[in-house]
Write a structure and sequence with these properties.
Distance between the termini: 25 Å
Strand content: 5-15%
Number of strands: 3
Order of helices and strands: HHEHHEEH
Low-confidence stretches: 164-171
Shape: extended
Structural class: mainly alpha
Mean pLDDT: 77
Number of helices: 5
């Protein structure tokens, strides 16, 4: 077996590990959100998740619950509106927008400054948007994206990258 195929195996294992951890984190977050929303039993995170990731998932659940408990209902029927638009409706077409406003006028909710986690509901109560400020902090994003994955990827890709550089140091 040559170095390239070993590196390919290592990269495949790393990708599988990353997908597994992502899946476990999503499952934990979903279960914890549902438990807190309904007053269910506490959820124990998988042992595959490190403490920092569990804390980030807990922060996400906290923001989701706050938003869920702070709905703002608008008088727009999003299902009706979505049937009137098309994926081809791109750009700015004043005539088309005027017709849409006539058929689906906006509600008269006025202007509201939203500074806390919130869900925006349509007239039927369907959630059409989540506002989740400060959910992913800079530290969380850097820790997740840079600290672990990039360093792990760098180590796994080092043999392949070394082979791609010629003896004189050029690509």
């Amino acid at each position: 077996m040559n170095v390239s195929s070993t590196s390919d195996i290592e990269i495949t294992l790393w990708r599988t590990w990353a997908l597994t951890v992502t899946h476990e984190a999503c499952e934990y977050t979903e279960q914890k959100f549902n438990a807190e929303k309904t007053g269910g039993d506490p959820v124990i995170p998988s042992l595959k998740l490190d403490t920092d990731l569990v804390m980030a998932c807990d922060q996400l659940v906290d923001r989701l619950i706050k938003a869920y408990k702070n709905p703002i209902q608008m008088q727009i029927d999003i299902a009706r509106y979505s049937k009137l638009i098309s994926p081809k409706d791109m750009g700015h077409n004043e005539e088309r927008e005027e017709k849409l406003l006539e058929r689906c006028p906006p509600g008269h909710e006025g202007t509201k400054l939203v500074e806390i986690p919130t869900t925006i509901l349509d007239a039927s109560g369907a959630i059409i948007a989540w506002y989740l400020p400060d959910t992913l902090t800079d530290a969380t994003q850097i820790k997740w994206c840079l600290q672990k994955e990039i360093w792990a990827a760098k180590d796994l890709l080092a043999p392949v990258l070394e082979k791609s550089v010629k003896v004189d140091g050029n690509w």
